[in-house]
Amino acid sequence: MSWGLYLHVPFCLAKCAYCDFVSYPYTQVEAGRYLWALRREILLHLAAGELPQTTPDTVFIGGGTPTILPDRQLTDLVRELAVRFRWPEWAEVTVEANPGTIDRRKLAGLRKAGVNRLSIGMQAAHPKNLSTLGRRHTYEDVVEAVQAARDTGFTNLNLDLIFGMPGQTVDEWRATIALACSLEPEHIAAYSLEIPEGTRLFRLVERNELEPCPEERELEMYQLLRQNLARHGYRQYEISNFARAGFECRHNIRYWQNGNYLGLGPAAHSHFNGRRWSNCCRIERYAAALEAGELPLAEDEQLDRRTQMGETMFMGLRMRWGVYLPAFRERFGTDARVAYRDEIRRLSERGLVELAGPYLRLTETGLPVANLVFIEFL
Ligand code: SF4
User: Fold this and answer.
1) Can you give the C-alpha Rg of the chain in angstroms?
2) Topology (CATH) of 309-377
């Protein structure tokens, strides 16, 4: 069985204005407690004997900001994971990094420890946009980070971008795309900004101190992104993800194919064959459970077959090639075209999905309104 490994490192320099991820300001003491608990979690999983006999072939160390950990702590962690989980040499091993938390030394250590993909949080190029997001770095820091990554042998780089933020103009977004492309990453992920309740940005919008980006402008930015990245040789393979040929993120494709993965660390989610569970979010609870010798579970559920089928449909439709119908049939013993006859008919009539050989996929019309398609399968 093929599966992936995700590790959540819940520390950051400071909280960004739009962030509702589980992340805390980094302190040595908290990081020490977290790493101790994480090691216990790994050992408990391995001792339970519930993991597949096979080894993971994609690894994603995300956060938070994993690269906020000091050089030695971070490389020791990657090495320990590699020893415990024995992934093959050809595995895709990604680490998320933020500009300002990496230098040549840290990156060289990561390369040596087997990390072969780096995902850098660029988000925007214009200082005004970065300030709206509450990011602590500049575009120049991103240039430096990319240069350091290239110098230390990384040949698979992703840049994360955000568009549709309050006050952002289409020209600023155009410039961000151009500057991102000028750095020649192999992969670009670009998401429209969500402003979750409880965040600093949410409060500013609520008090009318910032105006959310109008929907039409956001759509214009999305289409601009697609056109410009296509011109630069990036193929769109998912709603928000673009890659040069052969550099699609295998770990994320696993999520969209509703595949199997183990998540470690606070707030991490796991999924194996319809069983889905998540870890508790707060570090204290996470660490306390492991100190007591228990897995730090917050939720644990066995999904029924219909739910698994629906999730496989709507997550698969995120990818440009869509849902591979023979694989769906093999997995669930039924043809998606029969199980979802009415939904597919309704969506086809509206021009939002289409059959393309053995795939069911979003049309060009369906792509920008994908959420309308997804709710049909919920
Ligand atoms: S770097 Fe990422 S995880 Fe950390 S605060 Fe900013 S958005 Fe949140």
Assistant:
1) 21
2) Arc Repressor Mutant, subunit A (1.10.10)
Percentage, residues of the chain above pLDDT 90: 98
Give CA–CA dist 78/185, Å, rounded: 23
CA angle in degrees (0–180, nearest 5) for 132-136-139: 85
Q: Counting atoms of ligand 1 from 1, which one is nearest the CA of 12?
A: 4
The DSSP output letter for 256 is H
Half-sphere exposure at residue 237, Cβ-oriented, CA atoms within 13 angstroms = 19
Q: What is the pLDDT of residue 277?
A: 98
Distance of CA 3 to the CA centre of its chain: 16
Instruction: Specify the pTM.
Output: 0.97
Specify the amino acid at residue 284. Answer: E
**Angle between the N-to-C axes of helices 28-48 and 283-291, in degrees from 0 to 180, rounded to the nearest 10:** 50
Distance CA 251, CA 256 (A): 9
Q: For atom 8 of ligand 1, which residue has the closest CA?
A: 19
Architecture of domain 3-255: Alpha-Beta Barrel (3.20)
Pocket of ligand 1 (CB under 6 A): 12, 15-16, 19, 21, 23, 63-65, 98, 121
Q: Which residues pair with 192 in a beta bridge?
A: 163
282 is written with which tokens?
């707060």
